[in-house]
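Residues determine shape. We examine one folded chain.
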Amino acid sequence: MASSICLPSPLATVACAVRVTASRAPTSNSGRRRLRQLHTVGRAAAGMDAFHVSSQGRDAEPLLHPGAAAATATHRRLRVRTHAQGAEEASTGAGDGAAAEAADYSLAAIILPFVFPALGGLLFGYDIGATSGATISVHSATLSGTTWFGLSSVQLGLVASGSLYGALGGSILAYRIADFLGRRVELITAAGLYISGALVTGFAPNFVVLIIGRLLYGIGIGLAMHGAPLYIAETCPPQIRGTLISLKELFIVLGILFGYLVGSLEIDVVGGWRYMFGFSAPLAAIMAVGMWTLPPSPRWLLLRAVQGKSPVEDNKKKAIQALRRLKGQSASDKVLTDEVENNLASIRAAYADQESEGSIFQVFEGASLKAFTIGGGLVLFQQITGQPSVLYYATSILQTAGFSAASDAAKVSILIGLFKFLMTGFAVFKVDDLGRRPLLIGGVSGITIALLLLAAYYKILNGFPYVAVGALLLYVGSYQVSFGPISWLMVSEIFPLRTRGRGISLAVLTNFGSNALVTFAFSPLQGYLGPANIFLLFAAISVLALVFVILNVPETKGLSLEDIESKILK
């Protein structure tokens, strides 16, 4: 048997397969029945740090294959083993005991189903970072390399926000077609739109074609931000689901930083904006090829069967094949079959007395309404607590503090991007240890304090610029450990299975719609209220957000998706 190893971070599993171990199941009929009950119901509250799942007063159980009832009081661990060790254990296991012992996760089950969907988030972040430099380049008489560089403020705004409008359209499109296409095909489609949008923009001969390219790229963002959290949540172990989905936010921040870096390198090149926009095409091609090699989500296959959209037996076989590709060839047929049967039973229970898949009206009923209130509320407050406005003032704040780097906008952006990256990394590796609620409550509290300090700086503390710098860093850090990663994590796991696809579509639409609203409202508010009152307004909204989190957002740490639906949403 492979020995137990604690790793420094989830990324240390790149060379290994991950094994969730539990005690051997009893071979009696009652023992088997108990195993099936545990598999369906799941067990709660598993804390996770450095791939160590602590008992938290009771033994933590994995989602895909729980251990037997005869568990000891020792801690469960995620074990690291090679495929050779897995094959050896499979060959020496004894019948049902070997089949019931543990769920084997291959390298593909942990790394690849995360990395390729997460590239969709990286490409979203890259667009944010690259656009800041591209709008300067395309509008410059000496650097644009075009005869139509004299863009009006409205035209320049369309260049900057064109992908946002496309993302709104992509969110609406995802609502209509996502459950039909499936998570995998949706992400392949998103990658294709990323590629076409990047190439059309990069080779645009005029302003109209440039905007068409920005819209195409934005539609890809809308599909990717819907499909990526769904695919990751439905294919990863529950003990590290929070870490992996939050890690997608880290990829977004990494993409922003990457966009800033490319922009700083190409900003002095004639026609540099073409390279800034076009450089995302090869990254999107990697995403497309990677998603093509991955299997469809087993849960989605079973969902389509229960909805009557595909033959049940055919999709059960496809789900078993998908699980085998995820877990590796060493997983026994009995383990895979039992898992599919239990997941199928859970989905049928969710669809009891229901005849069709969730409609837009059913998203606003019962458990789905509670889920949308939580998920939609989080992504709404994520946008209307002022993050774009705070970053707008970043350069002037750093300049007043006397930082030489502030004279160069690109360097300032890189500095803030690095800090965002570090703080997001902290949230990613602590979310399954500390939990969702503590990070949200602590982060939103920090956001509120930072906004009050910024308002005080512009009203009465003008002579203390380091107060503003500290408030700026407090805001960025607090946002990146709370609303940044946790909002999307909660959205991906809180919706019931029957309305999950449509519910997440509406949450993504809420996010991009409120983003567009803040973008449009910021300029007139800036002129009418001034910076001090703007920050006071955002501070008041942040207080409301804090109350919302305390009263409405549950803790989902360590719970399977089925547990969340049965224990929290009922």
